[in-house]
Amino acid sequence: MYKISKQFSFSASHILDSLGKDHPCARMHGHNYVVTVHLKSDALDENGFVKDYKSLKTVKQYIDETFDHRHLNDALPCHPTSENIARFLFEHFKPEIPELYAVEVSETPKTSCIYEP
After folding, report:
1. Distance of CA 1 to the CA centre of its chain
2. What are the two backbone dihedrals, phi and then psi, of residue 4, each rounded to the nearest 5 degrees?
3. What's the pLDDT tens digit per position in 62-77?
4. Residue 80: what pLDDT?
5. How many domains does the chain have?
6. Which residue is catalytic, options 14, 38, 104, 107?
7. Is 69 noted as a catalytic residue in this protein?
8. Which CATH number do you get for residue 80?
9. Is 25 known to be catalytic?
10. 7 with 33: CB under 8 angstroms?
């Protein structure tokens, strides 16, 4: 099994208002997010790749246009937690990238979540 990954980043704000007014994340705040897409394959293509990293430019373009410097409560159809962002991105890109097996989202250098169905 071959596994590769590529990271993308964006900055955005969100409000996790379901946490209650005393929780700091219930106030508007922002993060410098890092999104990592994880791909795997049993075999390599004719060029010796799982997937050419250059072909993942659609992921960067989508993240830049949809999330970068946006308010995630407005940009997502779900509550904007890292877990929901990871699942949303996985479901959005899986049809286009069949090798995709997981999406990881990090809000800080010390925290991350991975969605892997």
Report:
1. 23
2. -135, 165
3. 999 999 999 999 999 9
4. 97
5. 1
6. 107
7. yes
8. 3.30.479.10
9. yes
10. no
Residue 29 is a catalytic residue = no
- Cβ count near 9 (within 10 Å): 15
Q: Which DSSP symbol is given to 55?
A: G
Which two tokens mark 96? 């286009």
pTM as predicted? 0.95
Give every CB contact of residue 49 below 8 A, 6+ residues apart in sequence. Answer: 4
Q: What percent of the chain has pLDDT over 70?
A: 100
Range of the domain at 61: 2-115
Tokens of 20: 């209650």
Question: Minimal CA–CA distance to 66: which of 93, 46, 42, 106?
Answer: 93
6-41 pLDDT, tens digit each: 999 999 999 998 888 888 888 999 999 999 999 999
Write down the catalytic residue from 69, 78, 96, 116: 69
